[in-house]
What we know:
Strand content of chain D: 5-15%
Helix content of chain B: 25-40%
Structural class of chain B: alpha+beta
Number of strands of chain B: 5
Strand content of chain B: 15-25%
CATH architecture of the domain at 5-131 in chain B: 2-Layer Sandwich
CATH superfamily of the domain at 5-131 in chain B: NADH:ubiquinone oxidoreductase Nqo5 subunit
Strand order of the largest sheet of chain B: 1-2-5-4-3
Order of helices and strands of chain B: HEEHEEEHHHH
Number of helices of chain B: 6
Number of strands of chain D: 5
Radius of gyration of chain D: 17 Å
Largest sheet of chain D: 5 strands, parallel
Radius of gyration of chain B: 23 Å
Helix content of chain D: 40-55%
CATH topology of the domain at 5-131 in chain B: Beta Polymerase, domain 2
Distance between the termini of chain D: 36 Å
CATH class of the domain at 5-131 in chain B: Alpha Beta
Oligomer: heterotetramer
Amino acid sequence: MEDLGLKIFGAILTTIMAFAVGMTYGGIVRKLTARVQNRFGPPFYQNFLDLVKLQSKKTNIAHGFMGHTAPVWIIIASITVLMFIPILNGNLWFPNLNFHGDLIFILYMMVFGSLGMALGAGQTGNPNSAIGVTRGLSMMVGYEIPFVLALVALMVQYHTTSIQDLMQIQHESGTWLIFSNPFAFLAALFASLGMFRYSPFDIVGAPAELASGPMSEFGGKYLGTMMTGGSIFSFIKLTLYVDLFLGGAGNPDHIGIWATLAGIGVLLIKTFTLYMVPVFYGWVSPRYRTEQAIRYFWGWPTALGIIGLIWAVY
Amino acid sequence: MTDLIKEQKLLENVTNPFKIKGRVIRNRRVEVFCDKETVSSVLLYAKTQLGYIHLAHMTCIDWIDENKFELVYTIWSPVEKVHLFVKTKIDRENPEMENIDRIWDQANTYEREMREMFGIEFPGLKGERDFALEDWEEIPPMRKDFDTHNYAQQTYFNRPGREDAKDVRETLVERSGTEVPDFAKKYSRER
Amino acid sequence: MNLFFIILLILFSSAILAFISNRIVRGSSGIIAFIGITAASILFFTQLSIGSTYSFSLGGIQMQFGLNSFTYLFAIIVLGLGVMASLYSIQYMKGKERLGYFYFNFVLTILGMVGIIFSQDFITFFIFWEIMTWSSYLIVIYNGYSVSKVGIKYMIFSALGAYAMLTAIVSIKGIYGSFMIKDAMAAGAFNFTDHLYIPILLLIGFAVKAALMPLHVWAPKAYSMSPMSFTAVFSGAMSKMGILGMGLVLASIYSHASPEDSVNSLILKQVLGWLGGITAVMATIYALIQTDAKKLLAYSSIAQLGYIVVGLSTGTQLGVMAALFLAVVHAIFKGTLFMAAGAVEKQAGTTDMTKVSGLIRKMPFTFFASLISIIALAGVPPLGGFVGKWMLYESLITESDSYFLVIVIFFSSTAAFLYSYRFLFGLFLGQEEKETEHVKEAPLTMVIPMTILALLLIVTGLYPGILFEPIAHGMEYLGYSNVNWDMSVLNNIWGEQTNMSYIFTSIGVVFVVVILFISLKGYKGTRNVGTKEISTSGEIPLEHENLTYQLDYYKPFERAAAPLYKRSMNKIWNDIGNALEAVFNFTRRIYTGNGQTYALFVIIFLVILLIFKDSLFAN
Amino acid sequence: MINDKDSQKIVDYIQNFSRKHSLFVMAYGTGCGAIEIPATMTSRYDAERFGIRGAATPRQADVLLITGYLATKTLKRVIRVYEQMQEPKYVIGFGSCTINGGMYYDSYNTINALEQYIPVDVYINGCMPRPESVISGFIKLQELIQQGKADNGKRYRENLEWYRTNQKKIIKNWKMPDYNW
């Protein structure tokens, strides 16, 4: 019983941390973007203010059942995936429901939110939402291919489908997987560009052209809840990449309070570094059309992924 | 400049077959005056025989003293690089004019605008009656007998002090009885 | 009298009764068919035990009925879906013509499938196979002249498969001296060493029913143009008969494989796997450009059967288990989806997605059933579809040599999200049409089967073990030993596992918390509006205007994947047909109508005979 | 233990603070004023440092910015957009045309005073106002929000009859969905 209580406490703590980190990263990116554009920029806590404001809207519009539950699906997907991704290697403070974190499950669970979002956007009846959704889903087919190639390469190379085992392998061997299979890392990195939907792959919710696409009918608490889910999701993606390729964070041999804090620090540094890749790429890129984006992902990233898979097998 | 020989010749090309009057305004600008009935044949002739293939503009002028509407068709020849103005006057009462969108498709747009703004009827004109306005119930607003100032004052809520075209600053000065401040003088119209 | 006969007799007599009764009381044949199938199923599941057999001889040939644990699995599909579909059919077919004809063939198809399940020898197997084929053909052409071409296509391919199968059966008898399936399996008839052609011919025969890649061209139209209550059985259960046959042939290859034929097995494994993979990809990308919901589902059926074939082709324990699990789950969700499409067709008049939209408020139960089935179809956790997909991927990654097949399958399954969403959006979401204002929820007897099947999908997601049990027994019959399974935990051979109950707990808890939060927060200030009240730059959509985005839905994807759309199997088969026609035309010229020519042929024949006399009659 | 009134005060303070610093602007680009918006948003004047940000649709927006003259035809759309925004919402009239008609004071087709049709919180005068004045207008709005005086939606709801009468005077063919809760 005590174990269960600890687990629930840890789950809530993990969620809060993921939320806070994701929101802060978003704010920092806004600030950095502003500085790059020679602006002063909003404060780094701007996203929190936006969230509080959206949640304190007095009236809201619901477009039927699916529209009402769309944010719920996103939160479900983000929190459930979070529960299955190891945050720190072997640390008691961040216990997960399934400590192994199966990769295939996570791949599919990450789609759960998009599907719910798509259904909610569909029910609003706004044509812009539907157009945005088709673009998003089409683009998903694009970037999932290099991503899956990279993941399969890892799974085949180390004969495990568990994130925890992959982290343990990196911990024991002392090398990160980014060095033992660089091609897979590159393929996954390119795929992450599409996953974060920064420009040049932001045609899904192009504000001026599509009126923010799938979100166009959501405001107030719905938009706020979606923002929360999205922030947790961006943290999840980053943590997944760090766990898989950058050696993860934390040390299973030391699980004291200071070691935990140090682990979190390492995690933050690594995730932030990784987060800067799509952001940097986005600053200097115009926008791709959907079919250009799909072709982009089926070009070099897929080739790199295939090389990575061959590298892993032989 | 030249003696406008080219323009003179071109003018004669148009006027001679139809026995209508015309004049050269300046270089590359030629105008002819014709009846309501001959307009379409002049335009068709100019388009097919003389190379004025482009309808640049169509407009209407309200000569309220003469009790006439003057319609102006501006057509252009890309070969000669000359604008030809075909002008005609029609009655102001129950104005009606021949529809020329069989000669130029784009005439439809101008004709719809004229129908809405001046109330000139073009029989056989396609398209909704509402063109730029929505649910207009007064007399067509571009006619000179329509008092737009009066209409605006009655329909919209005029803010006091904005009844006329005077500079707001002057109105304020008048009302308060003080001098125009220095910083305002800098931008004043009487400078 | 034996129980096997009783069950078949019940089905047969209810078929006859259904045919006759429609003449007496209009519309009663549906009820009779339902009662007959239900009675047969009740008898089947309560009285019949696995392992019982009954032998008899007919015309000097020894025949046997029996039930083994492998075919029992398919009996669950056939009878379960049969009962549901016949219940659904009562209201769906109401008011249509020639009901006697329809139900006669409907029950006969079920009879054929039950017969296939019972038969332990190739003769009865083949007879019932033909009964199934013919009666389904008669239903395919039920809709009249417009579908006669579809029926002919179906018939041609079925006949091709049947000839292939018959040749194989005769060869087996000739070589091994027995018609018994078990004997053939034990004797290694399906091995790839001596008689390579036997398993290949059998596989061709089964592949036609399973709509595998080069032989699938009949399926899209045959599925989409028959009445939906039958298509639920057609696509859900009958295609699984092909899987049943493939399972028998393939599994015996793997379990009885001797070392020297391993190369052949490996090639077969690769060929079959890739055929399945390509089937899945091509069917998927064709599914997502369809504008008719029924056709979309038909293509998606073909794609899903592709996954099942891939799973079978691995031959590993997890792979075959995944294939069989997917077979059952596919029967459930595709049956539900075809039923939902039928309900929409019945209520709204059409399933053309460019004409129907926004039915969610009018048909909430149909939407719920479709939503659950679509989630299962797309393989999104936590429903049954995910369990099958997970096992399929894990089996491919852990135990197969063809890693790129994983990518192909994954491409197909990601693209499946596109058409899944298209189906739900096209029929149920978007703005409401003015023409569909009168639409109401489907009648109760149509909603009940859909809802039951949808709930089954949730149960199979939470406790896949209830399906693993019969699957494991069936696999033991096929020659696998120690098939391990768990109630709600999935294992792969590297020791990794996924616990479905954890997933359900997590999803359930978060769902309840967040939905309470979002519903209660600002409850009074939340206004429910219709789909016409949208922010279109301040413009107000008029009553008759429908802004739903339906045409050229996945145009960007089409443009990106344009090279894939260039080749169509239909075109290739047409070319083959044209070439054959040319050959026949040429052959026809032999008959010139001139007696002298025929005399010349005789002389030429004699000369040839004389020349090759020695080599022909050497012994 | 703090009593309810105090805790409500704290909640109000937090809410108003975040509302003030996070203004999603629905820039309704009528007339010539639309060109001032890019200048306000981009690097030279950078309105984002005050948390002012563009919103794509009225559902997400807090501030409705009317930039310039309003033709009667446009007014219909503006009313629609305004009614689709979620409370709390604010309106900023931008430029002389929204205040008194500006140079179009005698036009037969543009309205003269915006506050007759929808409630306005802040007017920014000028023809056109420069980005500095736009930002100062926003800051004025922020002050109003912090003091809790910006009750645009409430005013509209309470005086709906009056606003409707004025609107219907202009828009003769009234075919709009009702504004209801």
